[in-house]
Structure formats: C-alpha cells, structure tokens
Amino acid sequence: MARTLSTRVLLVCAAIGVATGILGGIAGLLTPVVLVAAPFAYGLVLGSHVLPGIIAQQVFRLPLVALTTHLLAALVATAANPAWIGRFIGTALLFGAIQEGIAALTRYRAWGAWRFLLSGAIVGVVVAVVVFFVADLATLPPWAQITYLAISVLGPVAWTAAGLAVGEQLRRAGVARRV
Amino acid sequence: MTAVVDPYAAAAPSRRLLVGLSPLAKLAGPVPAMLVLVFTRDIATPLVFVGLAYLLLLVGAPLTRKVGLLLGLALPAGALVVGLGLSLWVDPMRVDGTATLLTIGGWTLHLGALEIGLATGVRVAAILALGLIAGLTTTGAELVRASVQQLRVPYRIGYTALAAFRFVPRFAYELEVIRQAHRVRGAHGGRGPFAAIARWWGYVVPLLAGAIRHAERVALAMDSRAFGAHPTRTERTVVPWRRRDTVFVAVCWVASAGILVALFPWTP
Amino acid sequence: MTTAAFGNAAAEAPRDRPTPPPLLRVRDLAVTHEGEDAATPASVTFEVAPGEVVLVLGPSGSGKSTLALTLNGLISHAVPAVVSGLIEVDGLDAATTPVATLARHVGMVFQDPDAQLITGTLRDDVAFGPENLLLPVDEVLARTERALRQVGLWERRDENPDRLSGGGKQRLAIASALAMGSDLLVLDEPTANLDPAGIDDVYDALRTVVADGRSILLVEHNLDAAVQLTDRVVVLDADGRTVAVGGVDAVLRDRAEELHDLGVWLPVSTMAALSLQRAGWSFERMPLTPLELREALEAAAAPAGWAPRDSVPRAGGTGASGVDGAENAAFSLRSAQFPHETTAAPVIDVRGLTLQRGRRPVLHDVALQVGAGEFVAVVGANGAGKTSLVQAIAGVIPPPRGTVSVGGADPARTALRDLSRRIGFVFQNPEHQFISHTVFDELAHGLRGRGLPTDEVWARTMAMLERFGLAGKADVHPFLLSGGQKRRLSVGTALIGGAPILALDEPTFGQDRARADELLRLLRELNAAGTTVLVVTHDMQLVAEYARRTIVVGDGRIVADAATADVFADEALLRAQGLRLPPLRAALSGVTRHPRFATVTALSELAGADA
Ligand SMILES: Nc1ncnc2c1ncn2[C@@H]1O[C@H](COP(=O)(O)OP(=O)(O)OP(=O)(O)O)[C@@H](O)[C@H]1O
Ligand SMILES: Nc1ncnc2c1ncn2[C@@H]1O[C@H](COP(=O)(O)OP(=O)(O)OP(=O)(O)O)[C@@H](O)[C@H]1O
Ligand SMILES: [Mg+2]
Ligand SMILES: [Mg+2]
Q: What pTM did the predictor assign?
C-alpha cells in the first residue's frame, strides 16, 4: 500500500494531520462546554475532524492520502495523549475510510467540490447515528432531535468547505504547488 | 492535547500486569464491550464495566498522580456533568410520570430525566474507562511498533508517525509565535466569536505552510538514510505476541459476554 | 572559530599522494527543477578523491543545494527535476541507481538540525539508517556505537535528541550519516543555524571524520570555520557553472579578488586583507585564517599615512571589561560612554524589569536605556533571555507595569495596535507575520487600521514598496517572495506605521551572509535616517560591522552593555557567555607591529581613513 506514497507525501500528510490536530485540539477544549450547554450541537465540534483528510486530498489529489493522514494523525495524537487512544483511532478509521471511499468511487479522477461535500455529508450521517445512540438522544424533545440531526450533517459539511478553502489558500501561497 | 509527555520515552520498567501486555491485546480485549455499550440504556451494565475497568487499572497500571487524578476526579466529574447536562434536555413528555425533583418557574426536573441523563453519563464513562486500559499503559512508540509487527501496518507509516511525534511540540510552539506575531500586527482585533474565527483563520495558512516545508525537509533526511529501501527493515526491538496476550483477550471477551448475558440490559 | 586558528597546520600543507581513482566524479551536471526554465546549476564538473575535503562555493541560488541533493539521487528520484550530465559515485551512476543504494555511498547532513531527528533516542536515531539497509542486529549495533563514539556522543546514547544543543544535533546527524557506511559525506551548510559554540562543535566532529580517511563535500557560507579543513575548492558562478577548481592556494589565495567580485563569501581574514590591499597594503601571500592575517600584518609595513577609518563612531575609553564583580557587572560598562545620546530622554527606558515565563523567572531586575537613533545589538547564549527582553520592550509579552517605557508609553497599559506605532517588532520567521494575500495589502494593513484615506494609503504603501525594491511584486502572495524579499517585506510592515523604533529578533537566522548583509545595510540606512534599531543576533561579525553598542545578556541579566569595540575587547567575558570574538577581532588582537589595529573590529574600518 505505502509503496505508492513517497516519503515526502507521507511526512506532509503527517504534518497536515498534526497541524490541524493542534488547531482542532484548541477547539476540542470547547467540547465539554458544548456537551452541557447544547448537546445537540456536538456535531459541529466533531465535524472538525474531517479537516486532515480534506486538506491532504486538496494538497495531493492522490489515492490513500486521506486515510493515511487520518491514521498518522491518530497515531501521533495517541502518543501525545495516550488516554484517548480508542477515540482517536476509531474516528480516524471512520472518517478516513469514508473520505477515501468517496474518492475511490470516482476512481480518484473527480476532485470537484461536490465530491468533498458529499463525503462530508456522509460523515455527518454516520457520526450522527453513533452519537445518537451513545448519548441516548432519543430522549430529547423532537425539535432538539431534528436540530441535532441537521447540525450533525451540516457540521462536517461546513468543515469540509473550510478545508477546501484552506487547500485553495495553500495553493495560492505556493505551498501545495508541486506534487 | 492536555498532557505533555515524551512520546518516545520507553515505558518505565514495571512488573505490573497491564504494562507487560501487547498494546494490541489491551485494545482488542475491551473493544466488544465498548461497542455493545453504545446500545445499552440501563445504569447497571455500564456501572459494572466502569468497576471492572477501574479494577484492572488499579491492579495493573502504574499508578501515578496523573492517573489518580484522571480516574479519581476527571472521569467521575465528567460523567456527572454530561449526565446532569443531558438530563436538562430530556423531552419532558417522556418523564412527566416520574417524581418531581426541582421546579424553577414553569420548568420541572423529573427523576426520570435525571435517570436517563445519568445513565448516559455512566455509559460514556464506561466507554472511556475501557479505552484507558490501553491508553494508560501504552507509549506511542510501543503502539507503533506493535502495529507494524503484528497488524502489518506498513513500516513506512509507522516510522513516519514516529518521526512526526516531534511535530507536535514544534507546531504548537509555531502556532504560539504566529499568534503573537499577528497580535503585534493588529490583525483582527475585536471580541466575539466572529472576530475569533477570523483570527484563527489567519493562523491556518502560515501554520500549515511552515508545517509542510518542515515535513519535506524531514522526508529528505529520511530518504537519504535509505528509508523504504526494502519491504522490511531490521527490528531491534521486538514486540512479541505472547500466550498471556491471547489469554487476556479471551478472558476479556468471555467476561464481557458473561456480564451482558447476566444483566441483559435490553429487556423492556 | 578562534580555537581553530591554531590547529590548521596540517590542512595547509599541500597533501602529496598518488592519485587514486576518484570517489565522486561530476561532469557537466545541469539540473532543471520542475517548473523552472533555466538549469541551476548549469554546468558543474569536478572530482573528489578518497580522503579529500572539497569545499563548494557559489553565490546564493547558484545551485549548491541542488548539487548536493543530486549526489545521492534525491533529485530526481524524490524531488522532480531534469538532470543531465554525469554523476558517478564509487563507480555507480547516480541517475539510474536507487537512492537507497546510493545512500550507502553518500551520507547527507542538512542545514536544519531539527529536521534530521527521527526516533526517540540518539542510539535509535543512528541505527535508523543501518536498519533500513536490513543489516543484521549485531552489525547495526556495532556501526551505531562506532559512529556515536566518533562524534563523542556515545555517553548520551539513551537520551532524547531534543535535549542536545544545535551543535550536538548536527554531530548526531554526522554520526547517522557515518553509520550508513559511506565514504563520502556531503554537508549542506551544516552550521548556518548554529551559535558560535555549536559551530566549533561541528567542526571538531568533522576533523575526526577526515582523520578517519573519509571524504567530505562541504557547502558552506561560513568560510572561517571551513577553510581550516579544506583541501580543494570548487567555485560556481551565479548560473551554476564551475569557474574554478583547485587547491586552496590556487583558488582561494590566488583568485581571492575575483571570487570576491563574484559575490562568493571569503574568510573574514581574506576579506580584511583585500580591503587593506585596496588601501595600499601589500601581502606576500593572501591570508586565509586569523593566524595568517596576524602574521601577514606583522610582516608588512603600513602604507604612509594609513589609519583605520572610524566608521563606527564610538566615544572615549576603550579599555573596559565587563566582569569585575558579579554585582555591578551590568553597570561597569554603562552607557555613560554615550553622553551625546543619553542626554536626550531615552526612547526606551527599562527599569527593574523582572519577568517570568510560565513559572520560570527569565529576566532579573534588568535596567537599560536606549537613546533615539542608536543601533544596538543584543547578544548572548541560547536561552539567555534575549528574545524575552526585546519582546517585553515591544509589548509582545506584557511586562509588569511601570518597568518599561517605549517612546513615553508603557507597553503594559497600551493597546498593541497603538504600541505598534511607537515600536515595530520583526519576528525571526517573516512568514509568521504575514496576514494578507498580496504584498500590497500586507503593507497597507497597518495604514488602513488607522482609518487613513484610500489615496494616502496607496501613496504611502507604494513609496514603501519602492524603497524596499518590491514595487514589481505588489500583487504577489507574500509567501511566494524569495527569502531576502520576505525579510524586507516584514521590516517594511513594521516600519510603515511610522514606528521610530525597530526591534528585530534574529533577523539573519538561517539566511546566508549575503542576505544578512543586505538586511543589515538596510537597517543601517534606516538608522542613518533616524530610526532607533535593536537587533538580537548570534552573528558576531555582523554585530561588529553594524552595531555601535552591544548588550550581552547572560542568564536573564545584562552582563555587559557598552560600545561594541569595548565589549569585543574582553574575550574572557564573551567566552564565559558562550560567545566568540568576531573572526576579525581574533586576528587583529595580537598584532603588535601596528598598534592601531588594537581596536578595529569591523571590516569597514580597514578601508583606511578617507583622505
Ligand atoms: N524544489 C525546487 N523547485 C523548484 N525550484 C527550485 C527548487 N529548489 C531550488 N530551486 C531553484 O533552483 C535554484 C538553485 O537553488 P539552490 O537552493 O540549489 O541554490 P543554492 O546555491 O543552494 O543557494 P543558497 O546559497 O541560497 O542555499 C534556485 O533558483 C531555486 O529557486
Ligand atoms: N513560553 C515560554 N514559557 C516558559 N519558558 C519560556 C518560554 N519562552 C522561553 N522560555 C524560557 O525562557 C528562557 C529565555 O528564553 P529566550 O527565548 O528569551 O532566550 P533567548 O536568549 O532568546 O534564546 P535563543 O538564543 O535560543 O533564542 C529560556 O530558558 C526559555 O527556556
Ligand atoms: Mg542552499
Ligand atoms: Mg531568542
């Protein structure tokens, strides 16, 4: 598998994973606040985890970079904070597999924004279902459930759009020019 | 990102039970229970698993101050906060048959709501505590080596991760400097969430640009040392899968199944 | 650098030995990077014999780094580029041999020490290469031990490399390259990011490599250290064509004037001799080291009427020393020597500044005044507190109230935005400071924030672009500028608000001397026009050339604060602070025949007083 990815691609993927992780880690401090103040908005926070894969795909447009980036980010995050090993690896595999899968379905040829946003929406649905059960959100009033579902899907989609914008900026800054 | 640890540090020599196990065994053992817990609704099942996880950790993990704080304070407090928080949001229609605990103006907290909330809190705590079995007794380097040697994760990925451990403090420091620099430039002053978002947005490109360039330099250094020359590489540190790993996983699975059958949390 | 002055006898004697087949053969090498139209280097030809140390010189952008990367095949295997010509390493064709094979023959050491650490302990790091080669465990361990012992790091084998100093990390990188078993070591500016003590460290290690009979190809801007070790020199011109190949005598000594005109850096002693020649001195043999310069001066007669030009104005007393009693050390060299500057109210006034970062105290009761129009250098070892000091002055980290006054304002009570109109701060890495998508907006940002009318913003921004030679780049993304241009832009952004004071933190870090010099010349111009300049740097020769006053920070205290020449008159003080004399000072301090040199520290003084 890794034969196809050069050392440079691997390390840049790791760097993207770590850098977004650090930005996201600060956002992650908000998690408990959100959970208490507005549990149905948790999808917005969780959605930020789509970023590494999206940025990596935007920078490289190569097979396997999304999954690799998520995996590397999870391994590094685990080293920095081993207690959450399960959460890191689980999210990484889930998000990475979905993003990679969508790209694979188009045989890594279509890189339009719609493709990324679609993967964002699917991530949103999957995450929504898992969190729904963990947090027993069926007990919330209907309006909160609907809000929750909408936000859970919109969260990753919005973060995906942000990731696309970041990729675009990196291109303009000449960082992602050479593949 | 709270703990600052040396991710390369060899595990302190310890004869404690969990430290001697393969990281993969410590991950695989609790996983079925964690998955099933997602779908439980009672309080007893997650409580039993919390108890089991704590027992394993107290007996088998090296007990440091940090571990003590996490197990004794952070986790219970977190469960309580999540539980109370959620009970505020429970649909009143579902629980208005239960006893009233508290009334503020037109709003009432029912016992049923509190029960549902606390059950969720304990469930989350149980899932986290089971994850800590591996988390508190494994170093990053061990995990990487075990994944490479037993899970057949390509070693190029593993060693990339090892090299990238160093990115964490480096990029965190860079981010700090970028924030200072932007402050001095007077970029996006102002308060409120929108100013904050605009500010953070400004940090992304400089941080990623610096990160990517640094990664490219590290890649050159690794390539010049024949990284990836062969399909395998010499491993000086062997992380074996021993009989006790198999036993640990088997015991975990059997115990999980036993608890779930005994308590069968899905009876209406 | 000064210690090396006495250990160079062996390197200077021409080595007579029968010519074995070359270890490395490069013929007509041209490399065109993807996306570029011209090849740099355009045509390089030279050879490296076993056991030889070859130094590659060339102006910035001539393709030296590119050359280094082609030698082990990273270009074009890992970095896309078109390579023509021939490279043969140990008889292997670099174009067709995989990097992994070439890596056994060519060991690489790069510029950035931090970018070459991979694993968690020194031993694992050195073993990393041999493990990749699938060598048996015993062999890996044997090689690792040998390499670590050779660079003197075996005792620290179980430590995390993060804990090494910059020089220590580079020695580790050398050990890692040695463990690959290569007979040729290629180093691309291995000391560019190091402080003076670190540079000494690296060259000590390289000497043992040479003693071991291996060959070295060295790309280096800091010739004062390199020349001691070099057997042969290869010189490239701006396009990357070989213009000279030969022994140190034939190239560096005999063609020094020509190389200087090419924009290639020479040893400071050689540059000094060239200046003196122009002023009428004559030397039998071009000196390359401080020791040789000293001897040459002892042997030469001064031209009639020659006197050093006093280009760095300095007042009165010279025989000062910074370490007489720990207590008043900070005040023994007080700025009393600048009566004309301190009579005016100081623009920077620091009193009783004690600062903590985290829980660590990093500055202890610091006091200092800077008058309007001064040019002050702040020097000191790593971790001494230089950055903390200038950041507290500029308000980047808030100082305690009432301890700092900048242009009459207390940074602790002033909003940063207002403060930036009084003092501009330039961070080490210019990219960190950029906040806009075009060069124009980058500069205009500081003006727009103040609500100036659009056409005035436009006019002032264009004027600044013009002044810094960036007019053609107004619409370019700041990240796409060259290193030197980025640096100028970051200075421009700090200045455009009209700040009369400029503080720069290690503005020359990681830049070659040409860019460093360009920047400091710019600062001198600004200073001449009235801007007060405060620079933190590790480059002692640059300090000597440009700063009138030097502040030495040691362990959170000001250890010395005096005219630059006076600070450099006290070598014991500098050494105690992990600093070194500037090479020129080291050369001239022992000259007995011409006492006038006793106070000279800057090359510009050597041109001779204007007649
Ligand atoms: N990866 C790359 N892609 C495209 N162009 C490059 C790349 N690396 C270098 N160049 C270009 O090749 C030329 C030679 O650069 P190189 O870094 O080899 O010069 P150098 O002699 O090492 O300069 P310096 O003394 O500043 O280090 C420059 O014009 C540079 O812009
Ligand atoms: N953010 C921080 N938190 C805690 N300690 C710090 C922080 N920044 C610096 N220090 C410590 O303060 C001391 C002074 O650091 P400072 O960066 O001012 O030194 P410096 O003289 O600029 O060193 P260098 O030459 O390495 O840049 C050091 O010991 C450093 O470890
Ligand atoms: Mg170079
Ligand atoms: Mg500093």
A: 0.88
